[in-house]
Design a protein that fits this description.
The complex is a heterodimer of chains A (about 110) and B (about 110). Chain A is mostly beta strands and about 110 residues long. Chain A has strands at about 5, 10-15, 20-25, 30-40, 40-50, 55, 65, 75-80, 85-95, 100-105, 105-110. Chain A is built from no helices and eleven strands. In chain A, strands 2, 4, 5, 6, 9, 10 and 11 form a seven-stranded mixed beta sheet that branches. The radius of gyration of chain A is 13 Å and the shape is globular. Chain B is mainly beta. Chain B is about 0% helix and about 55% strand. Chain B has strands at about 5, 10-15, 20, 25, 30-40, 45-50, 55-60, 65-70, 75-80, 85-95, 105, 110-114. In chain B, the strands form three sheets. In chain B, strands 2, 5, 6, 10, 11 and 12 form a six-stranded mixed beta sheet that branches. Chain B has a four-stranded antiparallel beta sheet with strand order 3-9-8-7, with no helix packed on it. A two-stranded antiparallel ribbon of chain B has the order 1-4. Chain B is globular and about 40 Å long. Classes of the chains: A mainly beta (about 110), B mainly beta (about 110).
C-alpha cells in the first residue's frame, strides 16, 4: 500500500538496550523527519533528512542515531534506551517541491 | 529561530456553535503556516496551509484559517462545530525557504459537546 508506515507500532524495552524504529514511505519523498510526542511538549524534532545520505539534527537529537541509505527508509535507533525516551515517535515525509509533511501512524515506545 | 504558541490547552464548544483555535507564530522572513489534527492513537493529518495569497485559507472538513501578518496569528476556525471535530489540533510554522522542518505548537485539545 502507498503511504508512510512505521514499525513496530508498540514496543517495550529495557533500559540500556538498543532499539530501532523503522519508517518506510512509498512516495519517493526527498525529505523525512522523526518527531517525538510528549504530553506538554507537543511534537519535537529529533532528526531529519533532506535526501539519502544527508541527515541533520533537530531540537532533541541526544541519544538517537539515524541513517538513510535509501530514499524510502529512515530508521531511528536508540543506542542505549533510557526511561526519558519513553514516548510516541512519529515519522513524516515531504516532497522536495511540496510544503506539507505527511505523518506515519506512530510507534509507542516504553522503556522500563 | 521560529516558534509557535497555542495559548489554550483546551477549548470547549457546543455542537453547532462556531469554533476558534488560536495560534501565534514567530519567524524571520515570510512564514509558511499549517494546521494538523490528531485523533486518538493516530498520526497527524494535514488540514490546511498558508503559503501566500489570500489571507483566508480553506481546508479539509469545513475548517478555515485566517492569516494576520500584523498580529502574527493564524487562527483555525469552523462556522459550526461537530462532535466528530473533537481532537488534538496542532499549528506549525516553517520559514519561507521551504527547506526547514516544521516547528509545532504544543497542541490544543478541542472538545465539542453535544
Amino acid at each position: 500500500d502507498a503511504g508512510i508506515t512505521q514499525s513496530p507500532r508498540y514496543k517495550i524495552t529495557e533500559t540500556g538496550r538498543q532499539v530501532t524504529l523503522m519508517c518506510h514511505q512509498t512516495w519517493s519523498h526527498s525529505y523525512m523527519f522523526w518527531y517525538r510526542q510528549d504530553l506538554g511538549h507537543g511534537l519535537r524534532l529529533i532528526y531529519y533528512s533532506a535526501a539519502a545520505d544527508i541527515t541533520d539534527k533537530g531540537e532533541v537529537p541526544d541519544g538517537y542515531v539515524v541513517s538513510r541509505s535509501k530514499t524510502e527508509n529512515f530508521p531511528l535507533t536508540l543506542e542505549s534506551a533510557t526511561r526519558s525516551q519513553t514516548s510516541v515517535y512519529f515519522c513524516a515525509s515531504r516532497a522536495g517541491t511540496g510544503y506539507e509533511q505527511y505523518f506515519g501512524p506512530g510507534t509507542r515506545l516504553t522503556v522500563t | 529561530a521560529q516558534s509557535v504558541a497555542q495559548p489554550e490547552d483546551q477549548v470547549n464548544v457546543a455542537e453547532g456553535n462556531p469554533l476558534t483555535v488560536k495560534c501565534t507564530y514567530s519567524v524571520s522572513g515570510n512564514p509558511y503556516l499549517f494546521w494538523y489534527v490528531q485523533y486518538p492513537n493516530r498520526g497527524l493529518q494535514f488540514l490546511l496551509k498558508y503559503i501566500t495569497g489570500d489571507n483566508l485559507v480553506k481546508g479539509s472538513y469545513g475548517f478555515e484559517a485566517e492569516f494576520n501578518k500584523s498580529q502574527t496569528s493564524f487562527h483555525l476556525k469552523k462556522p459550526s462545530a461537530l462532535v466528530s471535530d473533537s481532537a488534538l489540533y496542532f499549528c506549525a510554522v516553517s520559514r519561507n525557504s521551504g527547506n526547514t522542518p516544521l516547528v509545532f505548537g504544543k497542541g490544543t485539545r478541542l472538545s465539542v459537546i453535544a
